[in-house]
Structures are given as structure tokens and as C-alpha cells.
Hints:
70% of the residues lie in helices and 0% in strands. It is built from two helices and no strands. The chain has helices at residues 2-25, 29-32. The protein starts with a helix and ends in an 8-residue tail after the last helix.
Amino acid sequence: MKAFLLGCVAAVVIAVGGMVILDRVQEPAAHAFATTGVRL
């Protein structure tokens, strides 16, 4: 039971860490595809 709970905690920590990293790296579509002739 202890190993299962530790695995669940590790999965949550990895998921939250990935979310934070991707939130900082990715940019919104409005910024990524914005040019002078595009209206989003």
C-alpha cells in the first residue's frame, strides 16, 4: 500500500511539474501566428 501511495504522489508531482514547464515554454496561438495581416 505504501508503494502505491508513493507512486500516486510521484505521478501528481510529475504532472504538475510538466504543466508548469509547458506553461512557461508554450506561447498562445494569438502570439505564435500573429502577423500584420492576421486578426485573431
